[in-house]
Amino acid sequence: MRIGVFSDSYLPYTSGLVRSVQLFAEELGAQGHEVYIFAPRYANCHREERVFRFASVPSPTNPDYWLAIPLSWRLPRLLRRLGLDVVHVHSPFLLGRAGAYWARRLGIPLVFTYHTLYEHYVHYVPLGRHWTRVLARRMSAGFCNSCDLVLAPSASVAEYLRSIGVRTPVEVLPTGIRLEEFASADPTWLRTAFGIGPEETILLCVCRLGLEKNLDFLLLAFREIVAVRPQTRLVMVGGGPAAPALKRLARELGLQEKVVFTGFLSREKVVSAYRGADLFVFSSVTETQGIVVAEAKAAGLPVVAVRAFGVSEMVNDGVDGFLTPPDAGQFRDRVLRLLDDGELRRAMAARGREAVEDLSITNCTRRLVAWYEMLLRGRGSHAL
């Protein structure tokens, strides 16, 4: 099968969406399919086989994020030569709409994965945020209804899509993880790289540093944790537009010696960071899945997270971690309980590793291929 993937972000940009596109593309290739990716061109990206880059410009509100110009004189001939069977888009905007257009022109099925709760990202729009939120819902629903199949990373997101008027069939397909990469990671790297002593406990957060990740909340809760457990460090892996403000807040809270901002890390080092930590903490309330939570569990970390959307399906509360309301005191108490009870922490870690076995990228990709094949057999939603 030949699959054309259109995404408004891709490597070297880092995000959960990009990680999903990358993982599924790699596994589809491993299972014998051909994947062609259509993505923005970044200033520091290199030529890759089967990756077509569109001319792009930096976003005015987030310079790390580049906006593709979805026009190319080479594209029509290339698409006809490739003989695609399915188009799979990962955005309802620039390249997503380009992919939808070409799926219709070529008469092939169109699949859309709804990765992002767009109405929660209106802080990147300087004016008219209420109407932007309303418009985001309408555009999302309208685009979904132009597709043959919509994939949601979690059941709560599938329910949300139906609630805003999506009539196209919606199926739940989380992004899988590569379980094997955690077995070979270096658990000593994190402490060595950032000078963290063996007597210190490491809380880890892996995410893009954006306003939507609710990281102010995490720093405020961490201040309360440090007041009780001074030998605790918070390591924040990732970069993003909110990094300067978060570093400033850490200084204002007197946490500059307790919080490590690693910036962007290679995948190998991210996995080693998971393996070198003691507990995973996560405060985002906008995740459609929260793949980093599943990765933390695969690395043997119990999780304390704010209960919201997809994350609530990634953590079995009281079994492999804790879910809390967005209350710093309750979040602090759950973290301290795990730090004080080593037996509970180890039990939750073991149960978390067991829970993610079904979430392997191999299994998730097989499900994706099955849906592609159903669409090809029925050419449309009636196949579902």
What does this structure look like?
The chain is an alpha/beta fold and 384 residues long. It has two domains: 199 residues, Rossmann fold (3-Layer(aba) Sandwich), CATH 3.40.50.2000; 179 residues, Glycogen Phosphorylase B (Rossmann fold), CATH 3.40.50. It has 15 helices and 15 strands. Strands 3-2-1-6-7-8-9 form a seven-stranded parallel sheet, sandwiched between helices. The protein has a six-stranded parallel sheet with strand order 12-11-10-13-14-15, with helices on both faces. Strand 7, helix 4 and strand 8 form a beta-alpha-beta unit. Helix 1 packs across helix 15 and helix 8 crosses helix 13. The radius of gyration is 21 Å and the shape is globular.
Structure summary:
This protein has 384 residues and is of the alpha/beta class. It is built from 15 helices and 15 strands. It has helices at 16-30, 75-82, 94-106, 129-144, 155-163, 180-183, 189-194, 215-228, 243-252, 267-276, 291-298, 311-314, 328-340, 342-355, 361-378; strands at residues 2-6, 34-40, 51-54, 56-58, 66-68, 86-89, 110-113, 149-152, 170-172, 201-206, 232-237, 259-263, 279-282, 303-306, 321-324.
What's the structural blueprint in terms of helices and strands?
Blueprint: E1 2-6, H1 16-30, E2 34-40, E3 51-54, E4 56-58, E5 66-68, H2 75-82, E6 86-89, H3 94-106, E7 110-113, H4 129-144, E8 149-152, H5 155-163, E9 170-172, H6 180-183, H7 189-194, E10 201-206, H8 215-228, E11 232-237, H9 243-252, E12 259-263, H10 267-276, E13 279-282, H11 291-298, E14 303-306, H12 311-314, E15 321-324, H13 328-340, H14 342-355, H15 361-378
Parallel strand pairs: 1-2, 1-6, 2-3, 6-7, 7-8, 8-9, 10-11, 10-13, 11-12, 13-14, 14-15
Antiparallel strand pairs: 4-5
Helix pairs in contact: 1-15, 8-13
